[in-house]
């Protein structure tokens, strides 16, 4: 199992979650579409050559985003990350994948 964490603006929150859940990620036992989400503020400065969805090249930008955490089985984690990248509006998606231990 893996834990997938990603950050997304509210405008695309449900769209991105739906794409990731469609791969089979977010399943725990007899439940699907399971996740935890928390609102916060992300910060970045688009550099030359970037194509920012929000903000302008060279200017520091702060934006409200959602942190979404969910689990994904070994068999679906690669597809979940691919779906995340395809559905997300940013040209550089901030995400983390952590292996989980079983006890």
UniProtKB/TrEMBL annotation:
Superkingdom per UniProt: Bacteria
Range of residues in the leader sequence: none
SUPFAM superfamilies linked: NIF3 (NGG1p interacting factor 3)-like
InterPro entries per the UniProt record, alphabetical: DUF34/NIF3_sf (IPR036069), N-reg_PII/ATP_PRibTrfase_C (IPR015867)
Protein name (database record): NGG1p interacting factor 3 protein, NIF3
Organism of origin: Pokkaliibacter plantistimulans
């Amino acid at each position: 199992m893996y834990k997938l964490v990603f950050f997304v603006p509210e405008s695309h929150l449900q769209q991105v979650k739906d794409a990731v859940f469609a791969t089979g990620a977010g399943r725990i036992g007899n439940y699907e579409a399971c996740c935890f989400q928390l609102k916060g503020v992300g910060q970045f400065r688009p550099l030359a050559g970037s194509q920012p969805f929000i903000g302008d090249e060279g200017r520091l930008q702060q934006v409200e985003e959602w942190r979404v955490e969910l689990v994904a089985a070994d068999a679906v984690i690669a597809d979940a990350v691919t779906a995340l990248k395809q559905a997300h509006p940013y040209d550089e998606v901030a995400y983390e994948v952590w292996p989980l231990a079983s006890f």
